[in-house]
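U., I forgot to send this yesterday:
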Amino acid sequence: MIEVVLNDRLGKKVKVKCNEDDTIGDLKKLVAAQTGTRADKIRIQKWYNVYKDHITLRDYEVHDGMGLELYYN
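Result:
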């Protein structure tokens, strides 16, 4: 289990526990459950790289305690 920190830069910081073999789509569902936002309205990125839903966290080299950016479409 790893813990990922997502910051939307609007004052909301979400900590989510997930597995490294979870996909970005799974991470979006976990974030949606905590924030109350629909999963299809969430975009996760790091700098200018928008993360695709079907790729795993391990493939993106997301580690424990790593911070990602959370945007709303």
